């Protein structure tokens, strides 16, 4: 009789920013499939998802990955359901309307490696600041790159788990890094980002380092904040062949600035200031190759005869990729050309 560790991972109900939770279930003779993962439950009164008089919340497995850091183990991403089997109010994944996986997403996840002892980014002196921004972006060498051993170990774990990481790099600020994940299907993209976040948290634990997902952890300083730029496409954008279609698609976002900002991560006003390659939080703009715009049209899309994707630069590093994707999809579906391409 074989025994397998299944690590059930879910999002709690904390506001305004949800956190990861997980626990291990030992199963016998596991067949290695998602269907073979039994449903489970947890105490929602300890995660801001229920009260003590009716505390059970259900875990519905939705994605399965091998866990390369543990023996005989898998990672099980789960949705949270209420006791009656309906999606819990904290369940952003259930709000995604992409059943045919028409939407593809690439998320650029930035974060800080954080020293709990100094309460500053890795590489910062105990008092004061390191040298100004400039040499840290895509840096090489111990003078400018900090925590590479954590980042490299995390990358290997993600690849071994089957997560589609497309790249990593050190970022503009000291101790700041980024990984990029792409998936065909909004739910799959969200699943992979959350499991990659989980693996990063767990890997950094071994080194006594925390992960700071906050979009502006250094406050009102001249240090860059952290984003989670959302690159997205669907059949309309991938086959448009027309600047007019892209203009119409970008303009469709203008009436919904507040709705997007509402799910693009807490404290985004600290990051979206119009500085440090951002647009102001209360304005909307778009442009070709414009990193100061709300939405950037990549030059590759233009050079490919207006067939490609768009990048929404407003989501921040702590945003829920499920909710970001759900809102982007909802807006794109208001584009008149969308109905034509998708037969609606």
UniProtKB/TrEMBL annotation:
It is found in: Cytoplasm. One of its GO terms (molecular function) is ATP binding. One of its GO terms (biological process) is glutamine biosynthetic process. Residues 4-85 form the GS beta-grasp domain. PROSITE patterns: GLNA_1, GLNA_ATP, GS_BETA_GRASP, GS_CATALYTIC. SUPFAM superfamilies: Glutamine synthetase, N-terminal domain (SSF54368), Glutamine synthetase/guanido kinase (SSF55931). It holds the Pfam family Gln-synt_C. It catalyses: L-glutamate + NH4(+) + ATP = L-glutamine + ADP + phosphate + H(+). Its EC number is 6.3.1.2. GO terms for cellular component: cytoplasm. It comes from the Bacteria. Keywords: ATP-binding, Cytoplasm, Ligase, Nucleotide-binding. Residues 87-344 form the GS catalytic domain. Its main location: cytoplasm. Homooctamer and homotetramer. Catalyzes the ATP-dependent biosynthesis of glutamine from glutamate and ammonia. Belongs to the glutamine synthetase family. This is Glutamine synthetase. It comes from Chryseolinea serpens.
């Amino acid at each position: 009789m074989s025994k397998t560790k299944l690590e059930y991972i879910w999002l709690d109900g904390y506001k305004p920013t949800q956190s990861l939770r997980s626990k291990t279930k030992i199963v016998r003779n596991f067949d290695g499939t998602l269907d073979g993962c039994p449903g489970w439950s947890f105490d929602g009164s300890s995660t801001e998802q229920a009260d003590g008089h009716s505390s059970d919340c259900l875990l519905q497995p939705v994605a399965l990955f091998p866990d390369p850091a543990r023996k005989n183990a898998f990672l099980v991403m789960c949705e949270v359901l209420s006791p009656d089997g309906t999606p819990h109010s904290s369940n952003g994944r259930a709000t995604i309307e992409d059943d045919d996986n028409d939407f593809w997403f690439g998320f650029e996840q930035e974060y800080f490696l954080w020293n709990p002892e100094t309460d500053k980014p890795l590489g910062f002196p105990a008092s004061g600041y390191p040298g100004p921004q400039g040499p840290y972006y895509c840096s090489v060498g111990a003078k400018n790159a900090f925590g590479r051993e954590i980042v490299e170990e995390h990358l290997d774990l993600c690849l071994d788990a089957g997560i589609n990481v497309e790249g990593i790099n050190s970022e503009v600020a000291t101790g700041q890094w980024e990984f990029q994940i792409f998936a065909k299907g909004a739910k799959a993209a969200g699943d992979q980002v959350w499991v990659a976040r989980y693996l990063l948290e767990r890997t950094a634990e071994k080194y006594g380092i925390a992960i700071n997902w906050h979009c502006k952890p250094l406050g009102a300083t001249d240090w860059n904040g952290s984003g989670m730029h959302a690159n997205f496409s669907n059949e309309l954008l991938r086959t448009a062949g027309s600047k007019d279609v892209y203009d119409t698609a970008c303009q469709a976002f203008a009436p919904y600035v507040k709705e997007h900002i509402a799910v693009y991560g807490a404290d985004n006003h600290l990051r979206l200031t119009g500085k440090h390659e951002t647009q102001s939080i209360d304005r909307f703009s778009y442009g070709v190759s414009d990193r100061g715009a709300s939405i950037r049209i990549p030059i590759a899309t233009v050079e490919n005869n207006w067939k490609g994707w768009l990048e929404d630069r407003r989501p921040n590093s702590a945003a829920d990729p499920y909710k970001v994707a759900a809102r982007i999809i909802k807006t794109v579906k208001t584009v008149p050309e969308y109905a034509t391409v998708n037969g609606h």
